[in-house]
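User:
Note these tokens:
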Amino acid sequence: MNTTYQEGETLAGAIAGRKNEIPDDVQLIVAPPFTHLYCLTEPLETAGIKVAAQNCAAEEKGAYTGEISAQILASVDVEYCIIGHSERREYYGETNPILQKKVRRALDAGLRPIFCIGEVLAEREAGRHFDVVRTQLEDVILPLSPIDFEKIIIAYEPVWAIGTGKTATAEQAQEIHACIRKILTEKFGKAANDTAILYGGSCKPSNAGELFAQPDVDGGLIGGASLIADDFIAIAKAF
């Protein structure tokens, strides 16, 4: 929940204006607030930058005041939708059954879900992090058909390392990303090798290169650093 429309337009323009600095094999996806989507999608797409929504409703349509459906997002040419972000889980009580419905709605509307998983500090300290991500995947992603699975992007968030003063190392990131890919491979086979698994734990210019060098870290889900065009471009160039 950052940037007025005018601020978002300026930020998007600054990023789009430097797209030529980004390697051709790096895909940029920007996820602005709902209010920005209609006006920013075309100029971003023209610059080769894809657009995502930060959330979508669990219902297709109806009397759900304040909600935005996946179909509404698709109608303004949004291609991706973040689902299950740790803040949605924590602050708005979104459970795996709710998120399963959201993923289904997004897929049915032709969107590509960026599905977020990850453990909180207590779960990490208890050594339950592998079990937590397995359950999140088993409840939402593993029931999908192989065709639907091909449209999924996974984003791992070490919730315990966000705003806690603790830091996840590149080795810890690789360890959990490898676990996630193994779980996906058990169900979907070789298709899991083509699934992008993004890292979402305070990725910034100073640590992006080390994180992206890990074999199972395919990109980043960037938070605060995405609000500064120079930092966002620097992270993208770290691949």
Remarks:
- The mean pLDDT is 96.
- The CA atoms of residues 105 and 196 lie 21 Å apart.
